Amino acid sequence: MSLENSDNLTSNLSASDLRTRQMLGMKGATATETSIWKLRLQLMKPITWIPLMWGVICGAASSGKYTWTLENVLISAACMLLSGPIMTGYTQIMNDYYDREIDAINEPYRPIPSGAISLRQVITQIWILLIVGMAIAVALDFWAGHESFTVTKIAGIGAFLAYIYSAPPLKLKQNGWLGSYALGASYITLPWCVGHALFGELNWKIVAITMFYSLAGLGIAIVNDFKSVEGDRTLGLKSLPVMFGVDRAALISAIMIDIFQLGIAAYLVTVGEQLYASILVLLVIPQITFQDMYYLRNPLKNDVKYQASAQPFLVIGMLVAGIAMGHAGI
Q1: Which residues of the chain have pLDDT under 70?
Q2: Residue pair 109/30 in contact by the 8 Å Cβ criterion
Q3: Which of 84, 114, 184, 277 could cross-link with 53 by S-S, CB 3.0 to 4.6 Å?
Q4: What pLDDT, on the 0 to 100 scale, is given for residue 16?
Q5: Which domain covers residue 82, as residue numbers?
Q6: Which candidate, 216, 293, 279, places its Cα nearest to that of 252?
Q7: pLDDT on residue 253
Q8: Residues 266-274: contacts with CB under 8 Å, at least 24 apart
Q9: Within a domain: residue 2?
Q10: How many domains does the chain have?
């Protein structure tokens, strides 16, 4: 997305709206902030926490053993804190740190390229979030009685993926397919498996199903690449919009979002959960509608509008699938 488009996007927003967008980590938030704590929060991009926190809920549902006790609610909240603000915040800051040259082109108003926060402060925040996250993961394993420290291992995998996604020499985001899938798996597979492991027994079927589901997440990850097309192209990063062009990448994204959700619905039919499969299919239909209305017509202009209108149906579908898996005893 060009700076000119970004200006058009925010020209009609009030100062209060701009500050809100800035705190949430949304694009086009050009308000100036000086509070170090607000800058730290902006780096963590709270708007990105929600899918991972929701993934924990889906995992708890797929375990088939979650009960509404005060203890379980508190443990779920701790797990959502781990998956959302802590580990997602860590991931977002890591990405901003290594993408500072790209952001200087695409989003120069971000805290790091604008110079509002020093690199030393950014590195310190990364380490604090990582240490706190691993400590919470260990505590959750002790609560669940995991001798193999399942939650800690998953948190470690997530931290490692975040690093190799953003940092050289691997920098998975340089490869459109690998980078987008790593992002999709981080948003679906990892929090889902943590939620499932806390209240049930994590097994290979759940891992395989959520990794398949993450291919729909790959499509969602492509949507996030459109805001960085100019910087990615300038610095030689092969995101899918750069590799295939904006329109073709949008079509690939839409197809993957729809096909792999329908694949999950087909699987639910095979395990005898036809009702839940039907609900999932019905939830895909409005997503296709919004793809036609907004996304495919102008992905650069309508990416945010599309996500706001279509993604609620995707995340509700994830919960439907989780409940179905728990009901089927997968």
Answers
A1: 1-33
A2: yes
A3: 84
A4: 58
A5: 33-328
A6: 216
A7: 96
A8: 267/209, 268/321, 268/324, 268/328, 271/324, 271/328, 271/330, 272/328, 273/324, 273/327, 273/328
A9: no
A10: 1
How confident is the model over 283-309, as pLDDT tens digits? 999 999 999 999 999 998 898 899 889
SS (HEC) of the chain: CCHHHHHHHHCCCCHHHHHHHHHHCCCCCCCCCCCHHHHHHHHHCHHHHHHHHHHHHHHHHHHCCCCCCHHHHHHHHHHHHHHHHHHHHHHHHHHHHHCHHHHHHHCCCCCCCCCCCCHHHHHHHHHHHHHHHHHHHHHHHHHHCCCCCHHHHHHHHHHHHHHHHHCCCCCHHHEHHHHHHHHHHHHCHHHHHHHHHHHCCCCHHHHHHHHHHHHHHHHHHHHHHHHHHHHHHHHCCECHHHHHCHHHHHHHHHHHHHHHHHHHHHHHHHCCCHHHHHHHHHHHHHHHHHHHHHHCCCHHHHHHHHHHHHHHHHHHHHHHHHHHHHHHCC
Measured CA to CA, the distance from residue 79 to residue 67 in angstroms comes to: 15
The burial of 37, by beta-carbon neighbours within 10 Å (0-12 exposed, 13-18 middle, 19 or more buried), is given as exposed
The string of pLDDT tens digits covering residues 161-182 is: 999 999 999 989 888 899 999 9
Q: Is position 74 within any domain?
A: yes
Is 18 in contact with 29 (CB distance < 8 Å)? yes
Say what the pLDDT of residue 3 is: 37
Counting Cβ atoms within 10 Å, is residue 314 exposed (0-12), middle (13-18) or buried (19+)?
buried
Burial of 261 (0-12, 13-18, 19+ CB in 10 A): buried
224, part of any domain: yes
In a domain, 50, yes or no: yes
